[in-house]
Amino acid sequence: MHSTFSLARAARLLLLLAAILAAALPLQALAGLMLNPTRVVFTKNQRAAQVELINSDSTPATYRISLVNRRMTESGEFTSVDTAGPDDRFADAMLSFSPRQVTLLPGSAQVVRVMLRKPATLTPGEYRSHLHFEKLADTSGASSVEQQSAGTQQIGVVLNTLIGASIPVIVRHQTEGAKVTLGALDLQRGAKGALLSFQIGRSGDSSVYGDVSAAFAPQGGTEHLLAKAAGVAIYTPNPMRKASLNLTMPPGLPLAHGTLHLRFHERAEAGGAVLAEAALALP
């Protein structure tokens, strides 16, 4: 009986890991820790969600779980916030979770349940806090799940001030949505390749989250994908985020006499629709 349970449990973990890989979600936030999903969004009448922690390391690990508040800068960095500003809307006061500390054996998993209780007089809008997982046994590294990318590149800044991993918990109450724009495209060429810098604009009462891709189409030729960054977010109340992509050209194809296309897509699991596009003509 015990053997059957262990095999079933191992099979479930393998299937979960395979599903995460297939979805191209950010995996490693801290050595040996995997989280699924990597963001929680409460909409409409949803009142509960869950996050699964998986210890993929070969040794046991203990994690302390907490809610923290952070503000995103124009460059994508996160800074800790002790006192809310006039434009900040944090969700921690209406969120609870359990358990608050877990010890995971190698290869084991634990579900953390997140509960939402919205006040009756809650003002319409989007509220956000971050669920933080602090590894107590090993303090050798730090990063943030929402900043990691499973694609060929990353847009984001690794957090070096907190030991652990974090995911956003977003509460949308009677929101109308958001629009995305792309602009300020600037191509810089150097000995090591080309760098495309740009700005992602956000308007509306919700954050945006998607993938960014850059492709080049020579005059009269086929379009070639040059770069892609997955899981790029702009959180409220920020109206804009600055970013850049390193472009990789196919052998024998010069980055000239054509058009460079920059696109912001929904995540594949959301449909993959193009939400914004901008072009840069290259002589």
Describe this entry's structure for a reader.
This is Fimbria/pilus periplasmic chaperone. By secondary structure, the protein is mainly β. The protein is built from 1 helix and 19 strands. The protein has one helix spanning 2-22; strands at 28-30, 33-36, 40-42, 48-55, 61-68, 70-72, 78-80, 95-98, 101-104, 109-116, 125-135, 165-173, 178-190, 193-204, 208-218, 224-234, 240-247, 258-266, 274-282. It has a 5-stranded antiparallel sheet, with no helix packed on it. Strands 3-12-11-5-9 form a 5-stranded mixed sheet, with no helix packed on it. The model is unreliable at 1-8, 14-29, 138-144 and 157-162 (pLDDT under 50).
Report the total helices. Answer: 1
The tally of beta strands, per DSSP, is 19
Unreliable spans:
1-8, 14-29, 138-144, 157-162
Q: What is the 3D shape?
A: globular
User: What percentage of amino acids are in beta strands?
Assistant: over 45%
Report how far apart the termini are: 71 Å
The gyration radius over C-alpha positions equals 21 Å
What's the mean pLDDT score?
84
Order of strands side by side in the largest beta sheet?
1-2-4-10-8
Percent range of helical residues: under 10%
Order of helices and strands: HEEEEEEEEEEEEEEEEEEE
Largest sheet features: 5 strands, antiparallel
Structural class: mainly beta
